[in-house]
Each structure stands twice: as C-alpha cells, then as structure tokens.
Specification:
alpha+beta, about 50% helix, 2 domains, globular, 5-stranded mixed beta sheet, two-stranded antiparallel ribbon, Beta Polymerase, domain 2, 8 helices
Amino acid sequence: MDYKKEIDIILNEDIDNFSKKIKIIAVLTSAIKENLNLTPVVVGGQAVEFYTGGGYATMDVDMVCETSTKKIGEILEKLGFYRDNKYWILDSNKLDLAVETPSGPLAGADDKLMELEIGQHTAYFIGIEDIIIDRLNAYVHWNEKWQEEWILGMMVTNYEDIDWEYLNKKAYQERVNDSLKRMVDKTEKIIKFM
C-alpha cells in the first residue's frame, strides 16, 4: 500500500486540520503495524484534542511505540517526515504536524484503548479514563491548574462512555481521587444545565 500517496491525498482534502490529523494518524498506524508488527497508541495532548472533539489544540502527536525510535523513524521518513530533534515533522505547507514516538510502556490499560476506524485504517487512542488520570496527575502533582478546563471538557463530552468504576480506582491509586470527585461534581452541574 502506498501510504505516502494516501497522506498526500488527505492533505489535499477539503476538511479541517483536526480531521486531517486524525486520518494521517490512522495511516501512520497502519504503516507502523505493517512494517514493525506493533500498534502505536496516541497519548498526551493529541488524545485530549481527540476526546474534546478538537476543542484542545496541539501541534504534536505523541504515539507510544514499544520499539526503537530509529525503526519508526525509517518508516516516517519514507512517508514524508523529517527529523528535528525529538520530533518527526511532516514536510508539508498544508498542515503543521509533528510526531514524537516515545517508547512504552503505555501508561494505561490496553483494554481501555479507543479504536477509531477510518476507512481501511485504525487509529488507537489511550482510553478516556487514562488520559483523564494523566491530566489529573498534572493538575494535582505538577500544579497545572489550567488542566481543569480540559479535564472537564473530556468528562462532559464523554460522560456516558467513561468507566467510572475504573476511573475512581485509578484516581485512588494515583492519589488524585479528591480532585476527581470535585471534577465530577462540576461536570454533573455542567451537564445538568446543558
């Protein structure tokens, strides 16, 4: 399959940049799976952007891969990316896209992954519960209070899909359960007035 050609077609589609990024992520996932027999998982800011429907904007995509970045770099290079420090930058004037491929392990449960099928490709995102925990950790332990907006955004948008038992258990393990409770209370008030 000519993944580079697929990326070029996506870049020329008349769709928003958020949709272009998601489609390109799915193509990259297929290329990595086909060549290295492993499944990269989107984490970090791009996962927040996905779960907020594009509300949170990020320029880079973190894809956790359990292999050397050199092997992945060889694939990305063939697909039109070039290396700039820790990032692989898509060589295009149509979309700003930087990919980082930290090695695993994934800080989340494999059985909570969100699989997003796009045509003949599938993108994998860290589970909603695990990205909420990630952002709660930043909120509590690194004092990143600005994370609250995005935690609430993810919780409001995905309220019905969240495994609350799992989320509460993880929050307790990570010592962020008090903040989670406050966020849930705020989320439920927001939903009540929607």
